[in-house]
C-alpha cells in the first residue's frame, strides 16, 4: 500500500509558513530551488538526494543499476493505464521534438500543456481524478502540428497514410466521450467494462470474477491476476502474463538486464537472494515466485540501498486485482529513521490497545521493519506523482507471517514542505480561527509525518481477516482500496492523540495530534474539493477514504456538536469542538471498517463508501473552487527525477554522480529517447 502525497493536502495546497520537521536533510543546500515548471493544475518540484555522496562505490553501482532497471519499465505503466496511451505519447513526443512551425503562439502553449499533462499522468487520463483530458486547441491545429513535423517518425500502421493516421487518432485525443474514464468505481455498473485501463479486454466483470473464482485462494495463495491482462482468446477467458517472453517482454528484458548487473553489487546475502528471486519472477511470471521474492525482500533489513520494483498497487484496477508497474530506488535516511523505528518498536502495543474487536486483533504482530528513505529515483506508477509513504508487501498473509517494510519518503516530504512554505494563503483562507492556524503552523509538518508513519507502519499492518474469509479484492471488490486506506488512516488518527506517542518521544505534546485533527477534518470536508470540477462526485480511493472518515465522524458527532460547519462572511469552515470525543468516534469507525474487512462484508463496505465517501455538496464545491481560484495555487504536485550519471574510465565505472535536472519537459524527452522499448500495441 502507498500513502498518497495528497494526505499532505493542507501543506500542499499552499504555504503554511512552517519549516519542515523532516530530519536528515541537513546536507541539502538551502539555495536549492525545489520548484521547476508549472502548467495546468500541476506544479513540478525537484528533490535532492542527501547522503548519496557518502556511499561506497559498490553501493553507488548498485543504485545505478537499480535506477536503470526502474526506468526501463516506464513504458509499461503507460500501456496499463490505457490501450492507446503509448500511441498518443509517441505522437506528441515526435511533434514536440520535430515541429518546424512557430513555437511562440497561444496554440503551441496549449499543445505544450497537453503534452506535459500526458507525461505527468502516464497517459491521457488525469493522474488523480482518472477522467480523460483533451487539448485546449482544436483538431485543425493538431493537424497542422502533425503535417509540419517529421512525418516518418509518427507511429503509423504499415501502409497507413498520414490522413488515415489523423482520422484514427482524432477520437483518442479529442473525444472526451471515447473511453472517458481510466477507473470507474460507480455503483451498480460493470466496473470492468466501464473502466478504460488496459487490464481487461472483451470481458465483463462477472466473467473476470468467475474466471478467478476457479483459482485456489485458501491459505497462503498468491494474488491471482496481479501480473496479467485478462481477455478472451477464441471466446475463452484467459490471461496474457507480463513476463519475459510474454506481454511487455521487450521492456521486462531490459529490467532483467539491469537487475542482473546489480546482483554482484548487492550489499549482503539477503539482498542478493531477493534480487535473484525478483529476476526469476520476471522470467517465469509465476506469482508464487513473486511471493518468494517478497519474503526474501522483507528479510533484507540491513541494506542501505533498497528497491521496490514490480507490479505492486491495484488502485488503477476498479476491482483491485491488477498491479501497476512501479519502481522506487532509495537509500536509508539514518537520522529520520529513528522516529519511525520508535513507532514500529511499539507495534504490538498499538495492536493490543486498539479499539478493534478482540477477534480481529493480531495476537502476534510479525516483523515490521520501519525506516525513512531518501528517494534516488522513482518510475512507473510512483512518478512523477509520488507517494509519501509505502508499506509492502500488500498480501495480508505475507505481512502476518513474514512481516512488512514501512517507509516514509523523507526527501520527497522535505521538498513538499519547502514548496509549501514558499506558497501562499491556503491556511489563512480555509482554517478557522487564530488558534488552529498557529497550531498547524507550529506542528503541521510533524503531525503529517507522524500520520504517514502510523498509517504505513501500524495501520496497514494491523488487524486480521477471519478464518475462511476471502481476500478483500474478492469480498469488498471495487470498494476494497478506499476501505483499506480509510482503515489505515483511522489507525493513524486514533493514535496521534494518544499519550503513548509523547511517552516514546516522537512528539512533544497532544497539541500535535490536535493539529492533525484540524488538518484532516478541514481536508476531508472542504479543501480536498479543490481538486474537483463542478458536478463531480468523488472517485479516487484516497479522496473517498478521507471524506468517508471525516463525514462519518461529523454525522455521528452531530448530537454532541463534536464538529461543526461555521459560516463567516459567506465562507464555510470546519471547527472541532471536542478533540477527545472525535478520537473516540475515529476509534468506533476503525472498529467497524476492520469488521467489514475481517468478515468480508461487501454490503457494509458499500454502504460506508456510498453514504459518506462519494457525494459532494455542489454548493460547497462551488464556493471552495471560487475561494481557491483567488490563491493562484496548484492543487497537484510531482517531481523531476534526479539523474544518476556514471563516471567512466576505460569502460569501467569509477564513480556515480547525482545530477538535478531543472526541466520536466527536457527529462521527458530524454526518457523518450532512452527508455522507449514497447511498441504502441501490446
List the helices and strands and how they pair.
Layout (H helix, E strand, L loop, with lengths): L1 E3 L4 H4 L22 E5 L2 E4 L11 H16 L1 H7 L4 H14 L7 H16 L17 H9 L14 H13 L16 H4 L5 E2 L3 H9 L14 E6 L2 E6 L7 H14 L6 H16 L2 H13 L5 E9 L10 E9 L4 H8 L2 H6 L15 E13 L6 E6 L3 H7 L1 E6 H12 L4 H5 L3 H26 L12 H4 L4 H16 L3 H5 L7 H15 L15 H16 L6 E6 L2 E6 L2 H21 L2 H13 L3 H12 L6 E4 L3 E7 L2 E8 L4 H11 L8
Parallel strand pairs: 3-14, 4-5, 9-11
Antiparallel strand pairs: 1-10, 2-3, 5-6, 7-8, 8-9, 10-11, 12-13, 15-16
Summarize the structure in words.
This protein is globular. A hairpin with a 2-residue loop joins β5 and β6. The relative contact order is 0.16. It is α+β, with helices and mostly antiparallel strands and 682 residues long. Helix content is 46%, strand content 15%. The chain has 27 helices and 16 strands.
Number of strands: 16
Rg result:
24 Å
Structural class, by secondary structure, is alpha+beta
Number of helices: 27
User: Which regions are unreliable across 5 or more consecutive residues at pLDDT < 50?
Assistant: 9-27
Strand order of the largest sheet: 1-10-11-9-8-7
Kindly list the characteristics that best describe this protein.
6-stranded mixed β-sheet, 15% strand, 682 residues, alpha+beta, 3-stranded mixed β-sheet, single chain, globular
Task: Give a quick rundown of the structure.
The protein has about 675 residues and is α+β, with helices and mostly antiparallel strands. It has 27 helices and 16 strands.
Amino acid at each position: 500500500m502507498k500513502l498518497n502525497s495528497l494526505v499532505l493536502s493542507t501543506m500542499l495546497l499552499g504555504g503554511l509558513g512552517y519549516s519542515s520537521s523532516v530530519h536528515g536533510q541537513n546536507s541539502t543546500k538551502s539555495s536549492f530551488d525545489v520548484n521547476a515548471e508549472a502548467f495546468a493544475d500541476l506544479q513540478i518540484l525537484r528533490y535532492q538526494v542527501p547522503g548519496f555522496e557518502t556511499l561506497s562505490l559498490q553501493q553507488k553501482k548498485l543504485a545505478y543499476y537499480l535506477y536503470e532497471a526502474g526506468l526501463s519499465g516506464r513504458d509499461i505503466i503507460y500501456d496499463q493505464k490505457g490501450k492507446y496511451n503509448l500511441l498518443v505519447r509517441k505522437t506528441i513526443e515526435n511533434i514536440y521534438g520535430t515541429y518546424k512551425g512557430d513555437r511562440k503562439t497561444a496554440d503551441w502553449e496549449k499543445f505544450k500543456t497537453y503534452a506535459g499533462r500526458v507525461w505527468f499522468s502516464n497517459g491521457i487520463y488525469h493522474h488523480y481524478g482518472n477522467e480523460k483530458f483533451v487539448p485546449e486547441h482544436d483538431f485543425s491545429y493538431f493537424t497542422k502540428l502533425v503535417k509540419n513535423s517529421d512525418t516518418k517518425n509518427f507511429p503509423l500502421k504499415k501502409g497507413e497514410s498520414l490522413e488515415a493516421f489523423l482520422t484514427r487518432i482524432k477520437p483518442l485525443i479529442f473525444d472526451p466521450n471515447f473511453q472517458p474514464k481510466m477507473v470507474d468505481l460507480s455503483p451498480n455498473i460493470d466496473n470492468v467494462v466501464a473502466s478504460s485501463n488496459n487490464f481487461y479486454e472483451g470481458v465483463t466483470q462477472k466473467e473476470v470474477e468467475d474466471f478467478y473464482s476457479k483459482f485456489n485462494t485458501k491459505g497462503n495463495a498468491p494474488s491471482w491476476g496481479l501480473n496479467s491482462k485478462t481477455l478472451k482468446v477464441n471466446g475463452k477467458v484467459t490471461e496474457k502474463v507480463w513476463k519475459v517472453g510474454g506481454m511487455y517482454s521487450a521492456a521486462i528484458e531490459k529490467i532483467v538486464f539491469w537487475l542482473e548487473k546489480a546482483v554482484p553489487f548487492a550489499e549482503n546475502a539477503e539482498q542478493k537472494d531477493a534480487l535473484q528471486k525478483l529476476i526469476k519472477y520476471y522470467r517465469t511470471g509465476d506469482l508464487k515466485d513473486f511471493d518468494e521474492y517478497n519474503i526474501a525482500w522483507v528479510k533484507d533489513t540491513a541494506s542501505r540501498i533498497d528497491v521496490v520494483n514490480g507490479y505492486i498497487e491495484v488502485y488503477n484496477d476498479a476491482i483491485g486485482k491488477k498491479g501497476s508497474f512501479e519502481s522506487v530506488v532509495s537509500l536509508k535516511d539514518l537520522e529520520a529513521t529513528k522516529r519511525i523505528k520508535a513507532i514500529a518498536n511499539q507495534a504490538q502495543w498499538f495492536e493490543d490497545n486498539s479499539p478493534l474487536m478482540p477477534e480481529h486483533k493480531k495476537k502476534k504482530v510479525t516483523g515490521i521493519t520501519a525506516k525513512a528513505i531518501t528517494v534516488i529515483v522513482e518510475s512507473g506508477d510512483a512518478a512523477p506523482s509520488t507517494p509519501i509513504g509505502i508499506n509492502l508487501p500488500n498480501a495480508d498473509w505475507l505481512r502476518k507471517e513474514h512481516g512488512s517494510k514501512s517507509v516514509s519518503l523523507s526527501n520527497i516530504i522535505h521538498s513538499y514542505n519547502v514548496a509549501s512554505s514558499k506558497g501562499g494563503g491556503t491556511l489563512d483562507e480555509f482554517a478557522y480561527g487564530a488558534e488552529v492556524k498557529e497550531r498547524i503552523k507550529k506542528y503541521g509538518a510533524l503531525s503529517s509525518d507522524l500520520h504517514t508513519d502510523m498509517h504505513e507502519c501500524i495501520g496497514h499492518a494491523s488487524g486480521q481477516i477471519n478464518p475462511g474469509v476471502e481476500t478483500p479484492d474478492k469480498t469488498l471488490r471495487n470498494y476494497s482500496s478506499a476501505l483499506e486506506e480509510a482503515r489505515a488512516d483511522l489507525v493513524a488518527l486514533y493514535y496521534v492523540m494518544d499519550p503513548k506517542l509523547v511517552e516514546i518521544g516522537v512528539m512533544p505534546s497532544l497539541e500535535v495530534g490536535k493539529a492533525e485533527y484540524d488538518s484532516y477534518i478541514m481536508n476531508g470536508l472542504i479543501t480536498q474539493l479543490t481538486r474537483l470540477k463542478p458536478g463531480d462526485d468523488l472517485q479516487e480511493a484516497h479522496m473517498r477514504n478521507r471524506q468517508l472518515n471525516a463525514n462519518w465522524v461529523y454525522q455521528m458527532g452531530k448530537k454532541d456538536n463534536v464538529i461543526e460547519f461555521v459560516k463567516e462572511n459567506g465562507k464555510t469552515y470546519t471547527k472541532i469542538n471536542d478533540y477527545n470525543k472525535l478520537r473516540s468516534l475515529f476509534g468506533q469507525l476503525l472498529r467497524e471498517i476492520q469488521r467489514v474487512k475481517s468478515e468480508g462484508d461487501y454490503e457494509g463496505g458499500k454502504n460506508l463508501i456510498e453514504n459518506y465517501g462519494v457525494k459532494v455538496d455542489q454548493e460547497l464545491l462551488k464556493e471552495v473552487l471560487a475561494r481557491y481560484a483567488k490563491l493562484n495555487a496548484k492543487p497537484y504536485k510531482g517531481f523531476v527525477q534526479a539523474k544518476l550519471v556514471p563516471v567512466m574510465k576505460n569502460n569501467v565505472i569509477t564513480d556515480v554522480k547525482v545530477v538535478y535536472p531543472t526541466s520536466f519537459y527536457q527529462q521527458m524527452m530524454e526518457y523518450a529517447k532512452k527508455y522507449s522499448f514497447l511498441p504502441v500495441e501490446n
